[in-house]
Design goal:
Order of helices and strands: HHHHHH
Strand content: under 5%
Oligomer: single chain
Length: 187
């Protein structure tokens, strides 16, 4: 007859904390890799395009008006420069791509490590310590499913309704930076 000993309160607490941490980290990593990063990139790109189209156009029109049309005429001489900039910046930045790939791989490896560690702990508890893991494991899985469903819903709602609507910098910051760089480089 195979008799196991009940798991102590301290062990339950530690295993539960490990399991919660592993599942939360894995859930948030997968959520960000699959959904969050794409939405964040789109939101940033859309906001940047909006700021450029709204503000830069006003600045350029005002500059052209102040110079009696001379600014627009003079800018035509920069067409080859714009073509070079457009060509060079249409390719993804290899440094950013490499970093993001490394980040996603590291998060995936850490998630895998945490889940493997969880499995090892449960195997050791069951086969080396002779403790009852079956019901305990099922209770942790049920508890985590409920908790993470609730957390996932809250995270999703927060992300959609708060985080994506935040403007991290005032619109003037980007335009001020563009104008300052143009002035530094041209004049």
């Amino acid at each position: 007859m195979n008799v196991c000993t009940p798991i102590g309160d301290t062990t339950i607490l530690l295993v539960n904390a490990l399991f919660h941490s592993a599942i939360l980290f894995t859930f948030l990593s997968v959520f960000y890799m699959v959904y969050g990063s794409k939405v964040e990139t789109k939101a940033s790109n859309d906001k940047f395009a909006e700021l450029v189209s709204d503000n830069l156009k006003k600045i350029l029109e005002e500059a052209d008006r102040k110079t009696g049309g001379g600014f627009k005429r003079d800018m035509a001489f920069l067409d080859p420069v714009w073509d070079i900039l457009e060509r060079d910046y249409q390719r993804p930045d290899t440094t950013v791509s490499t970093y993001n790939t490394w980040l996603f791989r590291t998060a995936s490896m850490l998630s895998a490590f945490m889940l493997i560690a969880m499995g090892i702990v449960l195997i050791v508890l069951k086969y080396s310590c002779g403790q009852c893991v079956g019901n305990f494991l099922w209770d942790i899985i049920k508890e985590n499913a409920v908790i993470f469903a609730a957390i996932g819903g809250v995270e999703y709602m927060f992300f959609k309704n708060v985080a994506l609507k935040m403007i991290p910098a005032p619109p003037s910051l980007m335009i001020d930076e563009v104008v300052a760089k143009i002035k530094d480089g041209i004049f």
